Structures are given as C-alpha cells and as structure tokens.
Amino acid sequence: MNSLAHLHIDLPDEASTLAWGARLAGCFEPPFRVHLVGELGAGKTTLSRGILRGLGHEGSVKSPTYTLVEPYRLGELDLFHFDLYRVSDPEELAYIGIEDYFTAPALVLVEWPDRGGDWLPPPDLRCQLTVSGNGRQLCLEPTSGKGAVLCRQLAGEIAGVP
Fold first, then answer.
1. pLDDT for 1 beyond 80
2. pTM given for the model
3. Which range marks the domain in which residue 131 is found?
4. Domain contains 1
5. Measured at the alpha carbon of residue 87, what is the angle toward residues 83 and 89, in degrees to the nearest 5?
C-alpha cells in the first residue's frame, strides 16, 4: 500500500504525547486496531493514556504489563489495552482468548505487538515512538484503508486544510 503516507510528529514532552493521544482518540472509528511500537520508556503507555483521556476516561491508566489486558468501557465504546512485553510465547495469547478481543467492535491498543506473533490480526495504524533528545518522535503508519483515512484527516488538520 504505497499510497499510504506516514506522519511524523515531534513530541517535546509528556504533555505533548498526552495531547497527541487525545487528538488521535477523536479520529478512531471502531473497530480499529493500533500497534504501539518502541523501546522501553519510549512513551507507548503515555500515548495510550492520552487516547483514553481523549475518550473521556478520568481514572488512572496503568500499563497492563502483568495482566496483559486492561478493558475499559467508555460510554458505548469498548477499549482493550494490551501490553505483551512479558509474553514469552505467542501461544500464551490463546489462553486469554485473544481472538475474542479482535472480533468485538472495539478500539484495541497493543503495546509490544511483535511478541504476539501470528496471534494478532494486522493493525489499522502502527504508532512508532522513538526517543529524540529529551522528547519523542511519533511516526504514524497507516496499514489499512481505515488507517489511511485517519492519517489523511490528521495531515489535513496539521496543514490547516478543512
């Protein structure tokens, strides 16, 4: 899908990461799958927290490192936040019924998706976070038609095009 353009966004601090998460939240049309990629401390959970806050969640947002998944009910929206960092064998995901999470009309955020192997369906959007000085760089890579629509919408907003 070479017609799908990547967006690169500078995130100078945690507040900008949260703000971009909230901005992304306003663009998702479930069902929608997001893979969050980056090294430890790159800001994956912070971006997830921004998405959840942008969708109206007011409580704490913790990384589901030990539980593998944190479910959220936000009005009519189901959101499932996965952290697969501690998964040593992708087959472990069968035991939690991973396929059920992806058949629901939900928003699914997956940190460390590479640990899920073939058990994960492809994402609609891949969010690559990298450390850049004291801040972060966010690269949004659409990997489906729905992801491309989201990126075009955001690119238009950034450029000031209605």
1. no
2. 0.91
3. 7-159
4. no
5. 145
